[in-house]
Amino acid sequence: MKHADLHPRRFLLQTGAKNYGFHMGPAMNPSFESDPRIMLESNFYYPQEDILFDYCKATGAQWNVVRPSYIIGAVRDGALNHMIGFSIYAAVQAHLKLPLAFPGDYAAWVRYIPPLCHVVLPRRLRGESWHLSSHHPSIRLT
Q: Which active-site residues does the annotation give?
């Protein structure tokens, strides 16, 4: 950032449920942002957070970390990767002004999938971490 003469005001780092150890098996549920780091094995989220925190402390930039339980398209054979294709299908149907018919059976329809959202972060939330399912009262999910 220094070499490019860039001075961001805020960073948003998206990590996920691995922060709480869910990738290793059953974990504390509910999980809280104040939970200690799980140090049973290395976790690439922690160095990312440390670098972010150090950079922001040195430059005065603000930061937020969000920890959604599910991230679409992040890994091969991910449980929600099918949503990429479904989203493209929905966009095409909308462009053609055609109804959006669910392309699956009833069992797939009634399966719970957490809502997808965009996050709007008020300035007063700088320097906080949270998992998106916490429904922080100051965060607007759209």
A: 18, 45
